[in-house]
Amino acid sequence: MSSLPAAGIPTSQRRIAFATIIGTTIEWYDFFIYATSAGLVFAQLFFQPAGEDIALLLSLATVGISFLFRPLGAFLAGHFGDIIGRRAMLVITLVLMGAATTLIGVLPAFAQIGIAAPILLLLLRILQGLSAGGEWGGAVLMAVEHAPAHRRGRAGSWPQLGVPLGFLLASGMTALMTGVISPGEEYLQWGWRVPFLVSVVLIVVGFVIRRSVEESPVFAEMAERGKQTHAPIVALFKHHWPLVILAALVFVGNSTLGYMTTGGFLNNYAIAEQHLDTTAVLVAAAVAAVVWFFSTLLAGVLADAIGRRSTFLIGFCLQAVVVFPIFWLVDTGGLPGLYAALVLISTGLGLTYGPLAAWYSEIFPASMRFSGVSVTYAIGAVLGGAFAPMISQMLLEATGTTAAVSCYLLLTTLLGAAATLCLRDRTGIPLGPDHEAEQASGATVFAPREAADELSGKR
User: Fold this and answer.
1) Gene3D superfamilies, alphabetically (predicted)?
2) DSSP letters of 334-382?
3) Is residue 2 part of a domain?
């Protein structure tokens, strides 16, 4: 698309990279600080009257319930993002997430206000889910639609880095607090609140940075020509619902395993079942986030070199190999075993997360792309990561063995790999509004053969 301005200018690319990485890091820090606290303190502070085991399940369930509202956030952000622009939605979702996180930091516990405490906690978690549902689509489109075709994989990995960075920041902050304050009475009283209140400063920084970037050139061209779709969600499900389901299942294969760490299950298992030190476990999680960061960067490079689909399949193969050993390592290796398990998980996660932004952006038409990537990602999160910690805890309690959890992780990994095989690699396809017909055809292996041949010929 020749009319896109300055897609390859290094200064512009650096500015977009910085804005998307900083913004998504802050968003996911807010999201993960909740998940980390859910495994450590929320059961005791907000759900204790239900009894120890049920309280933990309820606490982990609130992590998952917010995912049910991510599709709604994705619907809203996708609708308005395809109509009023990508940048505006990025700013709105950032402020919404920050407000919810800060309010959790000042929320009274069950001992102070009774049943209102868990109800308010759940409502604020729902606000986080709405924000997270709208955040991802805008961030990845700002990155990918600004990038030249041969660098979309790397550009798409920029907002993906916000997830491991946000997890690193959340784990690091919690580890700092549990290290400075003994994870006992003082931490339960006020120490856990500090990481939530820090969000105020982060949101101000993110707001200023995101306001400074230019609108996506693809959306700017659509707006100039008046080519926005007035009901993008309706058009998406009318014409592309099989594609939405298949692409969502790809993310299921990643997010289920991912939420073993970010959702708090593996951390809580290491602390509660293997009696490892809380701060040491959180430090291990932070180290794993660093590995996840670099494997995500590597995946972006690989996606440009060998294609999105091939990179995903390599990552899913690695995931399938490690789902049983990770628990064996934690059970028998103590803290070094936990480090090894988290490194193995993080390497596979990066390879199945880094290329996601570019691939999703290339399979949906420009006029409904924000809706497509946002809704697909949210559905994948609900079907995969949403209740993965709670399901894993239930399987562990019902069977008394982590083998059941490993089987569950293997099943979702194979499901993601199968969905990957059903999609075609669309590396380099033009993203602008002049190529809607080409973008709307040939994304799955079930599309007419001639559509795929035509697409291949044009490239």
Assistant:
1) MFS general substrate transporter like domains
2) HHHHHHHHHHHHHHHHHHTTTTHHHHHHHHS-GGGHHHHHHHHHHHHHH
3) no
